[in-house]
């Protein structure tokens, strides 16, 4: 059984709220809401696709994802609510009749690149380093 750590490292604040810059635009709860949102498989895939392909319409997302239309729109709204994606509406429809486009925000790109994708890169590097089949 592990031991319970009671002392926090010297370079880490005792209170997680102290991680925030003094003039932070977002609260700790808002950052945690973003983390919770990206923790859902469908929402992760939406942010992933938007971050790596640029703008997409709901129709384009629907075509590449295995999710029904109402579920897709629910997740798009959840991601918009926490600030991980944004919706751009054109004043005129394009040739396909589409006028609403979604794209990842800077926060969406950041939480993806420095969060889940970074963990996956670290795991890959670890496995590559300690892969006994390579010897």
UniProtKB/TrEMBL annotation:
Q: Tell whether Amino-acid biosynthesis is among the UniProt keywords.
A: no
**Highest taxon of source:** Archaea
Which GO terms fall under molecular function for this chain's record? DNA binding; DNA-binding transcription factor activity
InterPro entries found in the cross-reference section? ArsR-like_HTH, HTH_ArsR_DNA-bd_dom, HTH_MetalResp_TranReg, WH-like_DNA-bd_sf, WH_DNA-bd_sf
**Keywords, in A-Z order:** DNA-binding, Transcription, Transcription regulation
- Cited SMART domains: HTH_ARSR
Q: What residue stretches are annotated with the HTH arsR-type domain?
A: 23-118
Q: What is this protein called?
A: Helix-turn-helix transcriptional regulator
